[in-house]
Amino acid sequence: MRAIIFDFFGTLTDPSAELLRKGAFQATADALGVDRDRFWTAMTTSFPERIVGAYGSTRDTLRTIARQCGTDPGDERLDRAVAVHHAGAEKVRTPRNGALAVLDHLRTHNYRLGLISDCSSELCEAWSGTAYAPRIDAPVFSWREGHRKPDPRLYATAAARLGVTPGECWFVGDGGSREHDGALRVGMRPVLVTNAAYPGVGGLRTDPDTYLPDHRIDEIDDLIRLLGSSHDNG
Ligand SMILES: [Mg+2]
After folding, report:
1. Which residues are close to ligand 1, an ion, with C-beta < 5 A?
2. What is the pTM assigned to this prediction?
C-alpha cells in the first residue's frame, strides 16, 4: 500500500468542532441581515447542491441564499458576510489532536497522501492557506469535481493524481457520505475512524455508511500502528 486517502471533516478535523457550525452560520446570517433560522434551513437544505458546486463561490452562494431568505444584500454587506462566513468555516475545520503530526509522519515514511472531501466552496477557497495543504499531495473536492461521495470518479481521480492504482490506497474516514462503501467498490482498503472519544458527534455525519470496515481505529494516531502491522507497505 503506497498511498493513503483521507476524508476531511471529522477525520482530519476535530470532530467536536462540528458543534460550532450552527453558531458560525448564525454569525453569517447576522452579517447578511437575514433571519438566523431561515438562513440555517436554506443552507442545510441546499447542502447536496452546494457541495457539487451548483451555487458557485461563497460570495455567489451567500447572495443566492440571502435572496431565498427575502433579502438582497448590497456589495459591501455581502463582502462583510463572506469574511464572517470564512472565519466561521475556519473554526469548524480546526485540526484534530495529532492529525498534522500523523500526516508528517506518514510523509517521512514515503506514503503519498490524498484527500476526498464532500465540501462546499469555503474549504476550496481557503485550502491553500490551511495547515493541511502542504501535507496533502492530492486534494479532491466535491465542489470542484461536481460529484459527491460515494461517486467512484472521486476515488479514481484521487488515485490518479497520486500516481497509484486504487488497489494501492487505504481510505481513512469517519464514515459519512457512504464513503467506505465507495472506497471498497473501487478496490481501496477502508479504515473507519470511530471517534469513540467524541460521543454525540457521530449523529452529525451526513448520509452515514451502512458498511462497516474490517479495519477500525478510535483515533487518527492509531493509523500508524495499523499500517505498521499490515506488513505490505514496502
Ligand atoms: Mg467525515
Report:
1. 7, 9-10, 174, 176
2. 0.95
> What element of type H or E holds 3?
strand 3-6
Domain of residue 133 covers: 3-16+94-229
The three cell numbers of residue 45 are 437544505
What are the beta bridge partners of residue 172?
6, 191
**pLDDT tens across 173-221, in order?**
999 899 999 999 999 999 999 999 987 776 656 677 778 899 999 999 9
DSSP assignment letter at 132: S
Bridge-partner residues for 95, per DSSP? 13
- Domain boundary (74, 92, 110) is at 92
CA of 73 to the centre of ligand 1 (A): 32
Mark whether 122 and 55 lie in a shared domain: no
Q: Give the domain-ending residue among 92, 121, 155.
A: 92
Question: How many whole angstroms from 118 Cα to the centroid of ligand 1?
Answer: 8
Q: Does residue 84 sit in the same domain as residue 10? A: no
